[in-house]
């Protein structure tokens, strides 16, 4: 059964055996949601968090590129970058040229100036928000960035998320780990120090099944076999 913000709050309050309209509960609620969401998004490699953005261009004669900011905020991780050719052509109609990730030292040594500018072939991360490319671009090429973002948090105005729709049990378990820590110092469960460990164990069980499903979505599960291995089975 999927959840909404209202039903989520109701379930958590019911499990905690507290009233959801108390000042203490309402103060704790945003932190609980943030803990549960951030933990799940960091530990599960969900396809739902992967986005593509090709709104910005590399600048002729400059190896520096600032990653775009999506509607959900900045990229958390970068999984790949494509340079679109011909120059000035968008990703929808152009040709994608995948850049290879390398270390910064390589680009600083091999392409340390704009001499021999050409279509970039490599990129290196500088920090969370910036990269450099090599060779330095000889035209203004659109860059398509593929990576992960943090979806908008569950809130009274964002009443459902991927987690509440497809992983409500895991979301509840992660929330209760935080809530149990809160109740150690306040609430009816203060005399139960094992509560947090119990929810942690439940979370780990649910995480294992959720991770298996996430892997199958990416054709990376234990039951998936690549076409190449089917076409060329091992000798027996």
Provide a descriptive summary of the structure in words:
The protein has 236 residues and is an alpha+beta fold. It is 38% helix and 19% strand. It has seven helices and ten strands. The protein has helices at 5-16, 23-43, 104-110, 162-166, 168-183, 195-217, 227-231, and strands at residues 50-57, 64-66, 69-70, 73-74, 77-85, 95-98, 100-101, 122-125, 130-134, 142-148. The strands form three sheets. It has a four-stranded antiparallel β-sheet with strand order 1-10-5-6, with no helix packed on it. Strand 8 and strand 9 (130-134) form a beta hairpin. Helix 2 (23-43) packs across helix 5 (168-183) and helix 5 packs antiparallel against helix 6 (195-217). The two termini are 46 Å apart. Residues 186-190 have low confidence and may be disordered.
Question: What labels describe this entry?
Answer:
elongated, alpha+beta, 4-stranded mixed sheet, 236 residues, 4-stranded antiparallel sheet
Round the mean pLDDT to the nearest integer and report it: 89
> Poorly predicted ranges (pLDDT <50, ≥5 residues)?
186-190
Radius of gyration: 23 Å
**Which bin fits the share of residues in helices?**
25-40%
Q: What is the helix tally?
A: 7
* Biggest pleated-sheet summary: 4 strands, antiparallel
Beta-strand portion reads 15-25%
The secondary structure category is alpha+beta
User: What form results from the Cα inertia axes?
Assistant: elongated
Question: Widest sheet: strand order?
Answer: 1-10-5-6
The total of beta strands comes to 10
Q: Distance between the terminal alpha carbons, to the nearest Å?
A: 46 Å
Element string (H = helix, E = strand):
HHEEEEEEEHEEEHHHH
């Amino acid at each position: 059964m999927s959840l909404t913000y209202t039903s989520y709050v109701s379930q958590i309050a019911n499990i905690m055996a507290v009233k959801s309209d108390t000042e203490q509960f309402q103060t704790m609620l945003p932190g609980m949601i943030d803990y549960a969401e951030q933990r799940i998004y960091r530990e599960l490699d969900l396809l739902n968090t992967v986005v593509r953005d090709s709104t910005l261009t590399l600048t002729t004669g400059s190896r520096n590129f600032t990653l775009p900011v999506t509607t959900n905020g900045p990229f958390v991780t970068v999984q790949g970058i494509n340079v679109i050719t011909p120059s000035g052509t968008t990703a929808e109609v152009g040709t994608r040229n995948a850049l290879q990730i390398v270390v910064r030292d390589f680009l600083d040594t091999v392409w340390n100036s704009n001499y021999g500018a050409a279509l970039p072939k490599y990129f290196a991360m500088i920090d969370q928000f910036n990269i450099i490319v090599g060779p330095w671009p000889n035209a203004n090429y659109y860059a398509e960035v593929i990576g992960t973002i943090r979806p908008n948090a569950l809130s009274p105005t964002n009443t459902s998320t991927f987690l509440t729709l497809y992983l409500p049990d895991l979301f509840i378990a992660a929330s209760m780990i935080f809530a149990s820590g809160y109740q150690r110092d306040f609430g009816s469960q203060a005399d139960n120090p094992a509560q947090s460990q119990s929810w942690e164990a439940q979370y780990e069980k649910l995480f294992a099944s959720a991770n298996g499903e996430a892997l199958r979505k990416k054709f990376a599960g234990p039951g998936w076999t690549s076409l190449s291995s089917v076409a060329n089975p091992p000798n027996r």
